[in-house]
Design goal:
Layout (H helix, E strand, L loop, with lengths): L1 H34 L15 E6 L2 H13 L5 E3 L4 E2 L2 E11 L15 E12 L2 E17 L4 E18 L5 E18 L6 E13 L2 E3 L2 E16 L9 E20 L2 E14 L3
């Protein structure tokens, strides 16, 4: 039972992180739509990756590769083509991490984060956007304690809707709503432990302003997030468990597009402060 509780704890953490990544991707997609007329680079905009982003688990290797790519006017994003179906625009956003990064100490966690989101959206009015997305997120975690060790592989599917109401020159109101279903598989371990499953939902609503100062795009925002994850009962843990998280976030996205050789390059930075309302 101690092992099963440890697996449940890791599973909840994995699901929470994956839901956060989906919400960030969809909010970023809404920002991308608003700026797509100016966006001419494959770099991410407001957290949205229009293509397949490849990175390395080892931070030093990842930093070195990114510096080399940036110095040559390239990025770690492989662009994917977007198609129009009737009046709907389709998109694909994926993140791939290569390698495993081990922690240190008595407890260590190995991560191999991967995600794939496929969506379609359209303007239903001049100032209104609506869209839908399917997502797959994976996270592999290894928890090692004094008397046990085991791998917990989480695979989570999401179905989401998202939209925005643009308020003329005053910014926009953005919203995301989705449901999730996950499986948490327990790999090799010196102690048997049953696999676990979970269901959940997540939602975000934000107000975002769009400003410009000396060719630099500024996008301050305030956002409310809520997510609820229900871990199902199994043969070891006969009671289900529900965890709810609420938070308020304040931040700003800063981007600048400039000429680089024969094309244009966009540089982007995001700063966010998030306060947990449940603590």
């Amino acid at each position: 039972k101690v092992i099963a509780q440890a697996v449940r704890k890791e599973s909840k953490s994995a699901s929470k992180l994956l839901l956060s990544k989906v919400g960030k991707t969809l909010m970023g997609r809404l920002s991308y739509i608003r700026h797509q007329n100016q966006q001419k680079s494959s770099f991410s905009t407001n957290g949205f990756v229009n293509g397949i982003q490849v990175s390395f688990a080892d931070s030093q290797t990842n930093s070195f590769i990114n510096r080399v790519l940036s110095a040559n006017g390239l990025s770690n994003v492989i662009p994917t083509s977007s198609r129009k179906v009737e009046r709907w625009d389709t998109w694909t956003s994926a993140q791939v991490v290569i390698g495993r990064n081990n922690g240190a100490g008595t407890n260590k966690t190995e991560f191999n984060l991967r995600s794939l989101n496929i969506g379609m959206d359209r303007r239903i009015a001049q100032d209104k956007i609506i869209g839908f997305a399917l997502g797959l997120g994976k996270q592999d975690r290894t928890a090692t304690g004094i008397d046990f060790s085991g791998d917990v592989d989480t695979k989570q599917y999401t179905l989401s809707s998202y939209g925005a109401l643009e308020l003329s020159n005053k910014g926009s109101i953005e919203a995301v709503l989705g449901v999730a279903k996950a499986t948490h598989k327990v790999g090799k371990s010196n102690t048997l432990s049953a696999d676990q499953g979970s269901n959940g939902f997540f939602a975000s609503i934000a107000y975002r302003a769009d400003l410009q100062a000396q060719s630099v795009d500024l996008s301050p925002f305030i956002r409310y997030d809520i997510s609820r994850i229900k871990m199902k009962a199994n043969d070891v843990l006969t009671n289900s468990e529900t965890a709810t998280d609420e938070a308020i976030a304040l931040g700003i996205d800063i981007s600048k597009t400039g000429n680089y050789e024969e094309g244009q390059l966009t540089r982007f930075v995001s700063v966010e402060y998030k306060s947990d309302l449940r603590r």
